[in-house]
């Protein structure tokens, strides 16, 4: 095997440990549709998009460019704490909003809805701050793992109960920069 072909097999974007699920083109097409739906539903309003860091940053940047409206953008970082095997639903706000949201129409932008525990807490927290409305735009929904129901108002794709990476989603801070979404076949392989 030449060094150039060896390099190709270890490429981050063409890693054999990845099984592509949604291509970049398919993701962009769906985000365009979501942006049009949001623009229609929020016509004559000034929604505030609240992006949940870090995973949703790439999705959010493409989504907000697909929404032909006057809008604002803010960021939050939330973290579940405790042992990784426990899903207590307790969350810690790592980075809070920089502006009050009372009377605003809020659209939370999230990369993936999984158990729903952390996201249900976040949505209720934002409602308690006096927002006029709180809706959710999520790129991915892994509904099989749901422990607490969360209404997804704008959804990119439903996915199977597999560990996915790419397009902002990571495994140990790796793979966020993939231009597509893939199933990580074996997380033990680095």
Query: Roughly how many Å apart are the termini?
Result: 21 Å
Task: Name the CATH class.
Answer: Alpha Beta
Shape summary: globular
Please compute the radius of gyration using only Cα atoms.
18 Å
Order of helices and strands: HEHEHEEEHEEEE
* Fold-level CATH name: Rossmann fold
Structural class: alpha/beta
Q: In total, how many beta strands? A: 9
Main sheet? Answer: 6 strands, mixed
Average of per-residue pLDDT values: 88
CATH architecture: 3-Layer(aba) Sandwich
Q: How much helicity do the residues have? A: 10-25%
List low-confidence stretches.
1-9, 82-87
Oligomer: single chain
In total, the number of domains comes to 1
What share of residues are in beta strands?
25-35%
Number of helices: 4
The largest beta-sheet arranges its strands as 4-3-2-5-6-7
Structural notes for this entry:
- It is built from four helices and nine strands; from the N terminus they run αβαβαβββαββββ.
- By secondary structure, it is of the alpha/beta class.
- The chain has a single domain (24-159), classed as Rossmann fold, CATH 3.40.50.2020.
- The strands form two sheets. It has a six-stranded mixed beta sheet with strand order 4-3-2-5-6-7, with helices on both faces.
- The protein is globular, with a radius of gyration of 18 Å.
Task: Give the SSE map.
Layout: H1 3-9, E1 18-22, H2 24-41, E2 48-53, H3 57-65, E3 72-80, E4 91-95, E5 105-113, H4 117-128, E6 133-141, E7 154-158, E8 164-165, E9 181-184
Parallel strand pairs: 2-3, 2-5, 5-6, 6-7
Antiparallel strand pairs: 1-9, 3-4, 8-9
């Amino acid at each position: 095997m030449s060094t150039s072909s060896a390099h190709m097999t270890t490429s981050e974007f063409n890693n054999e440990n990845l099984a592509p699920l949604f291509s970049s083109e398919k993701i962009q097409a769906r985000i365009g549709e979501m942006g049009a739906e949001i623009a229609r539903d929020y016509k004559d309003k000034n929604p505030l998009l609240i992006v949940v860091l870090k995973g949703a940053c790439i999705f959010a940047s493409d989504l907000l460019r697909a929404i032909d409206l006057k809008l604002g953008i803010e960021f939050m970082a939330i973290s579940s704490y405790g042992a990784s095997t426990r899903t207590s639903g307790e969350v810690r706000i790592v980075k809070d909003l920089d502006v009050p949201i009372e009377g605003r129409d809020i659209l939370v932008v999230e990369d993936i809805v999984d158990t729903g525990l952390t996201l249900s807490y976040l949505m209720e927290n934002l409602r308690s701050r006096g927002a006029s409305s709180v809706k959710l735009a999520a790129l991915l929904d892994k509904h099989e793992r749901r422990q607490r129901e969360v209404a997804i108002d704008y959804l990119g794709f439903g996915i199977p109960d597999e560990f996915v990476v790419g397009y902002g989603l990571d495994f140990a801070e790796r793979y966020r920069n993939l231009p597509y979404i893939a199933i990580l076949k074996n997380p033990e392989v680095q």
